[in-house]
Amino acid sequence: MKKISIFLIFFIFFLILLLIPFHPFSLGQENPNQPVYTIEDINSLAAFKSGMINYNNALYQKAIFYFKKALSYKSKNFLARYMLGFSYYKSGFLQNALFEWETLKSFGFNDNLFLNMLESIYFQEGNFLGKILAKKFTVYQQMHGITLSKSFFLWPLGMDIDYKNRIFLTGHRSNNVLLVRNGKIDKSLTPFGVSLGYPFDIAFDKRSDFIYVSDYKNNIIYKLTYDGKILKKIGKDFKNEQKLNGPAGICTDLSGNIYVVDQGNNRIVKINNNDQFVFSFGKIGKEISEFYKPVDIVYIPEKRQLIISNSYNNRLDIFDQWGNYIDSIESPEIIEPRGLFYSGNDYLYIVTKEKIVAYDFITESIQTISLGSSELYEPYFCLLDKNNNLIVTEPYRQRVNFFIPQDELYLNLDVKLERLDIRNYPLIIAYISVKDQFGRTVYGLSDENFTFNENESTIKRLNSDYSYLINDYPMINLIVDTKNSMYNYRDKVNEIIEKIFSIDKSIGYSYFLTSNYEQVKSIKNDILKLKEAISSKSTYKESTYFDQVFYSAISSFTQKFVKGGIILFTDGEFTNSSFSIHSQNDIINYAKNNYIPVYIFYFGSGNGKTFLKELAVKTNGYFFENEELFYPDLAIKLFKNYQSPLYIVYYKTPYPYIPDFYRQVFITVQYNGRVGKNWLGYYMPEE
């Protein structure tokens, strides 16, 4: 019996060894599961464990405390210093993060994944606001309408793209509208047996969930839902000179107005957000403010201008929103301009009779876009998707072309495994950001793009999703800057808050006043106290806790695993005391690195306008001023449509519970020939 017992003990021990596969840990071959003997190593390991648990619970300030404590016992604890850098990074303290990572390099640590990650951060931070123009593309996919067995199209023309990177395409002669995902027809939005006449172009309402489609044949504009239901036929009741004649290109502005290229009448028609005719401008001719077969129109929100492709006059004409002529763009490169697409980075893409060119608003220059060996035949419309791919329609060839920038074909992806949520162990939920070398999020990935390894075992059953679908508890923090100068705008602020609160009751709201660091309260169903505070002169102070309040407003989201956003009311009148604890860069980085969009309602002309605009841009929020202040519903729509650039991938770990055991998770992402890798670790939760 004694021999059998000894045999069983060795057999069980052998099984345990099999369940704990050895893995060569990346950082200096450190393995937290190896035995430690000195008191310094024991204390350093214990602090490191606490740091990892707090980091994966998004308690970054506590994680910083414990990782620093681990380093106080052992300064060359590479894992602790690596994670201390990430904790600083997620807390918005970029310079502190870079210092720790540079220190890691000085210790002789040369892990390739770490060095690639560090290089990408330096590049992206230095070029975040830089303009990016891809000049050379190569075709990677073509979609032929007549070869499709289902949802076919004939004469593909106008397109538009939504915030989910979905493309909506008009089939001019197949009388339909199609939804395109990842270069493939997903479905037709036109019910069987329903004809949309000759749909020419398509545009989204930027304030409401509507789609507008111009019908060239029936001289109307269809107002559709996202699933293709016809809500209204705009223009059917227009009288006399209001009637449309061959509506072609269309666009919308931030107020929900529609601008239509009325090609048969050689004019532009403005329709308000109540679907009513407002006015028209232009007539046939070759002189200023005259058109000869115009094709497309685009709205430039930063300039509040309209640009029209005046096709047979071989030029682009620029007007304001009221139809007043501003200027024209003419060049030998612009021959019969057709479709227009504004990329939002000071470039306007122009489809001409034979090629695609880009106009730079800053230098006022035109550059030809190279498409490699591909030759276009009578292209008509183009757009750039969120992955910077160029899509071009060729109606005469019944073809839609998908081009990828050549300089991105073989470059690595920037992948960050940002957090491992193990609260529901053995279910592991990974939060992953995937970006290109310019820091732009790569959209459209699915399960087959991800490979996970936990220690040496490949995880075979993965489920991935966009994080915007995990949106059960959306929350917005309202921050009211209560510096003395804001007292003059109290009535406007209260009016906007009243509108915001009435728009969507499914969103949870809390408020912060910058004059009172402790006053952080939920609005729930009662906003009277907030409005009373805003109306009271005693609320406003000469100096405020702007930076501390803003930082706290961001922190309130990071630990709740909810979709969060911030709406700020301010005139930008800042003093040195406004940023006594946290710098402007700290605040921008903290919101940006935790994917909290900031929507700013700006009053006055304070010295902080540049900072506030940068805050809105870098966090994918929006900067409201002037007449836009009275459209708070747009802020709520932008927030609801906001897609956090994180992928959520979850799986069940194959390993049993082992206390105090550290596991490393490695991830590989592959997309269009590009590869990115990263890793993160976790400790088993206490049972």
Tally of extended strands? Answer: 40
How would you characterize the largest beta sheet?
Answer: 6 strands, mixed
Overall morphology: globular
Q: What is the CATH top level name of the largest domain?
A: Mainly Beta
Give the neighbour order of strands across the main sheet.
34-33-32-35-36-37
The CATH topology of the largest domain comes to: Neuraminidase
Named at the architecture level, the CATH assignment of the largest domain is 6 Propeller
Output the number of helix runs.
12
Whole-angstrom Rg: 28 Å
Question: Number of folding domains?
Answer: 4
Sheet/helix structural class: alpha+beta
**What percentage of residues falls in helices of 4 or more residues?**
10-25%
Mean pLDDT, as a whole number? 85
User: Looking at this structure, what is the CATH superfamily of the largest domain?
Assistant: TolB, C-terminal domain
C-alpha termini separation: 34 Å
Q: In terms of per-residue confidence, which ranges show pLDDT below 50 for 5 or more consecutive residues?
A: 6-29, 127-131, 466-470
Strand content: 25-35%
Provide a brief overview of the structure.
The protein has 687 residues and is of the alpha+beta class. 23% of the residues lie in helices and 31% in strands.
Kindly list the characteristics that best describe this protein.
687 residues, 40 strands, globular, Neuraminidase, 31% strand, Serine Threonine Protein Phosphatase 5, Tetratricopeptide repeat, alpha+beta
Give a written overview of the molecule.
The protein is of the alpha+beta class and 687 residues long. The protein folds into 4 domains: 86 residues, Tetratricopeptide repeat domain (Serine Threonine Protein Phosphatase 5, Tetratricopeptide repeat); 272 residues, Neuraminidase (6 Propeller); 71 residues; 167 residues, 3-Layer(aba) Sandwich (Rossmann fold), CATH 3.40.50.410. 23% of the residues lie in helices and 31% in strands. The protein is built from 12 helices and 40 strands. The strands form 10 sheets. Strands 34-33-32-35-36-37 form a 6-stranded mixed sheet, with helices on both faces. Strands 1-26-25-24 form a 4-stranded antiparallel sheet, with no helix packed on it. Strand 16 and strand 17 form a beta hairpin. Helix 3 runs antiparallel to helix 4, helix 4 packs antiparallel against helix 5 and helix 9 runs parallel beside helix 10. It is globular and about 90 Å long. The two termini are 34 Å apart. About 5% of the residues have low confidence.
